[in-house]
Amino acid sequence: MGFSxxxxxxxxxxxxxxxxxxDGGSLAANVTxxxxxxxxxxxxxxxxxxxxxxxxxSDTLTVNGAxxxxxxxAAGSGAWSNEGNDILxxxxxxxxxxxxxADVYQIIYxxxxxxxxxxPALVMRLNDVTTSTYDTLKQWGSDGATTEAQKVTKTxxxxxxxxxxxxxxxTAYVYKSDSNFGASRQGGATLIxxxxxxxxxxxxxxxxxxxxxxxxxxxxxxxxxKVMKENTExxxxxxxxxxxxxxxxx
Length: 250
Description:
- The protein is mainly β.
- The chain has two domains: 1-76, no CATH class; 81-247, Jelly Rolls, CATH 2.60.120.
- It has one helix at 183-186; strands at 41-44, 49-52, 60-63, 70-73, 81-92, 95-98, 104-113, 120-126, 134-142, 150-154, 157-158, 167-175, 189-198, 205-213, 222-229, 238-247.
- The strands form four sheets. An eight-stranded antiparallel β-sheet has the order 5-16-7-12-13-14-9-10, with no helix packed on it. A four-stranded antiparallel β-sheet has the order 6-15-8-11, with no helix packed on it.
- A hairpin with a 6-residue loop joins strand 13 and strand 14 (205-213).
- The termini are far apart.
């Protein structure tokens, strides 16, 4: 039904149903008019109807700290954050990911030697540091039959053993130096990794590595994987992909 009046006192055309009651009624879609923003929702504060405007993309509807009303909050996530990935579908020199400052990094890799070296090894560097400051202790085995331990100080961490292997996949963890420990306890960035080396012409190798670099005591900004000829500084080429995740204790 329609109403009219003078000035601003004009009641717009509207509808009623047969269930009108003195203290309120039901809301019907596309019937009652509200001055609401798009995407908002309505809730009761116990006395009146209130509007909660739409949140940000991916927000989750939750209950406020006082347990009196709904509110939007950022969606929960796991402990690990995605720092990024790098992929080479043709032969290249390095795989690398620039990272934000964190306490621990998880590096997942599935790569292959692209340079046809006779004794290639998968290696890792941090922050483009190439000085002879990387110590690696490696244990490796052929079908689990043998082990070997060797301390190596070179311009990179060894993530694999050298040999005739063509492919490498595994996971490495890099830990940022903690200034609270002091140099006598842990004075630099550290590595622990496990790599599976695969070749069509050689036995399967599984290599466990630990390493440290006492000169990298600040933030880690870049993690690089590459293939180099064993016991040399000769670069080979690399194919494949790497993914880096991070977490902080706080």
